[in-house]
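Protein Record: Sequence and Backbone Structure Tokens
======================================================

Structure line: whole-number tokens from a learned vocabulary of local backbone shapes, matched to residues.

Purpose: to set a sequence beside its fold so the mapping can be learned.

___
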Amino acid sequence: MLDQVTHVENKLAELERVTLDDLSQVAQDARSVLDQVHRIMQHPNPAKTPPTFQSPYIAELCKIDKGHIRHLAEKHKLPYGTKIPGSKAHEYTLEEVIQWVNTLGNYPKRPEGQQGLAIAVVNYKGGVAKTSTAVALAQGLSLRGLKVLLIDQDGQGTATQMFGINPEEHVDYEHTIMPYIEEDQPDLRYAVQPTYWHNLSLIPAASVILAAEFSLPAKAAKKVDFWNFIKRGIEPLRQEFDVIIFDTSPSLSHLTMNTMLAADGLVMPCPPDALDFASSVQFWGLFDDLLRAFRKHDPNLAAKTYAFMTVVMTKVQPSEGHRLVKPWLKQAYGRHINVLEIPESAAARMAAAQLKTIYDLGKAEGTVEAYRRFKEPMDKFCDDILEKIALAWRA
């Protein structure tokens, strides 16, 4: 017994206390490592560059016979790409691909006089493929000929990083939504910036936007309906963009609530995992509670409607656990559950490790089967969301 007490005392003597200065050093060291990772991943190009594509991809997007590519290029005066040295194949830039889609693709266009639609991608927790789904959806819709804006509203700036931008190094206060939140700008037009991806613009985020959680509710003292602040901020942008996609934070914050009330459509990525399912239920329960509270102050919210709300299963695996939880999701969300499933895939993991989406890869890196297994459901998901957008425009 005495030996045990002595052993514990010795261990306590060896215990190294962690001070606040230690935690500060941890933050600095971790940031330094992340900066190195960014530099390595972007070497030798400091800025991210779009992928290139080959004829089969154009044929797939435009739903044409790839054997007719040359003839159609001559007939419609479309770019024929650049011949790949040592090969018969031609390579096309992203801008050239979108030119083909705009000419020959049979995708819905925004009717004259209609405004762009806002879509909020939401979830209560991280690790559910929320950001990668938001960015891939933005890219997929742009590949179908739409002009898209992605607004990063997560203080971690993960979506911003996926555009090749280091939030803590290259995103300042004035680049984010904060000048509008602080009422130094009349709307969000000032923050829009072009990206490496043609037809896709970005409003970036960094940790500075966490201050919105204090600024928004403080407006209540000024008799301002702060829950409609984002709605007013994007109003002029609806004329410029066909679709505005919000990547929200993994929480139901004041900013996320604002965004959901500004949105015309809601997308919730959710893996068929018991904890992820339970978290999604908590999310909608809290949303309902907050909405009831806001409606006491603003009766007009009773008239709020959405063109669509869809829950899409992500990171789906052929496991017993996922087979068990899928029926729970289908029963819980009924007509709102998306029939499409986005699988877990080696291609998805490879893309994520490089801060890319499946569309950034352009072509298979690794096995062709893993690439197709992930890309085909994502293509169908983008087509499904585009169909929902088109229906909303016609309504």
Observations:
- The chain has 18 helices and eleven strands.
- The chain has two domains: 53-104, 117-394.
- The CA atoms of residues 270 and 313 lie 5 Å apart.
- The two ends are 79 Å apart (CA to CA).
